[in-house]
Fold these 2 entries.
Entry 1:
Amino acid sequence: MKVTKEEASFETLREIVKILRGENGCPWDREQTPQTLKKYLIEETYELIEAIEKEKDEEIREELGDLLFLLIFILYLYEEKNVFSYKDVFYYTAQKMIKRHPHVFGDEVAKTAEEVLKNWQRIKKEEGKSSSVLGNIPKSLPALQRAFRLGERAARVGFDWEKPEEVLNKLSEEAAELKEAIQKGEKEALKEEIGDLLFTIANLSRKLNINPEEALKVALEKFENRFKRLEEVVEKRGLSWKDLNLTQLDQIWEEVKTSV
C-alpha cells in the first residue's frame, strides 16, 4: 500500500486500521479493544504535550499523528460493533460546537472570554449536563492538574482568595494542621492533611498564574539531573554510598547545585 502526501487523508488512516483489523491483518491490532487502548491514549497525549513544550515542530507533527491514528483506531472499533460511525462523531461534535458558540454562529453577543464561559455553562445546563460550575472535570486527570482545574472553576463564581498572600496564610494553616496530625500519628488524618496542603499549593500556583503540574515537572527534571550528577561525583571520587552519611551527601549536593 503506497500513499502520497497529496492522497493522505482521514480515510487513508481509517483504511489502514481496517486492513490491520482484517483477517490477514496484524495479530496484535486484531486483539485490541477500547479498554486495552486506554493506556496508550494517555501515553500518546502526554508525548504530544511534551513535544509542544519543547516547541519542536517535527516532534509535534509526529505525536499529533500518533494520537490521531489512535483516536481513529478506537473510533473504528465502535464502528465494527455498529455502535456509531465516524460521521456520527463528526456530526454531533459539529452540532455541539455550533450550539455552544451562539455569539459566533447565532445572534448572541459575548465580547470577553468570561462572557463566553458564562454562556457555555448556561448552554450545558440547558442540555441537561451537570449544573455545577465545577462541570465534569475527569477524575482520571493527574490529581494536581485536577486540583488546579477545580480551583479555577470555583473562582469563576467568586469562590476564591483575592490575593496570593491570602493563600500563603492558608498554606501556613494547613502546614500546622499537618504537623499536628504527624504528632498524633493517625494515618487517615495524615492523608487528609497532606491532601489539603497539596490542594492549597495548587490554588497558590493558580493565583500566581502558574500551572502546578508544569511547575512540578520542572522541579522533578531539576532534581533528576542533580541527583544523576550526584551519582557521577560519588562514583568519580571512588566513594561508597553505604559509607556516606546525610551530612556528607548534603555537602556534595550543594556542590552539584552550583553546576546543574
Entry 2:
Amino acid sequence: MDHHPAAARLTEAATSAVQQHGSGNMLRIVLIVMILGCVLTAWFLLRGYKQKDD
C-alpha cells in the first residue's frame, strides 16, 4: 500500500491539534466537515430532480 505524503501531513496535523487543544476542537472540525458533506451531497443529489419547463 502506497503512503501519500498529503495524508501523512493531514494525520500529523490532526494529531498535533488533539495534543495541543484536546479533543474538543477536533470534534468540532469533524462535525463541521460531516455537516458540510451532507449538505453538499443533498444538493448534488436533489439538483437532478429539478423540473425543467421546456
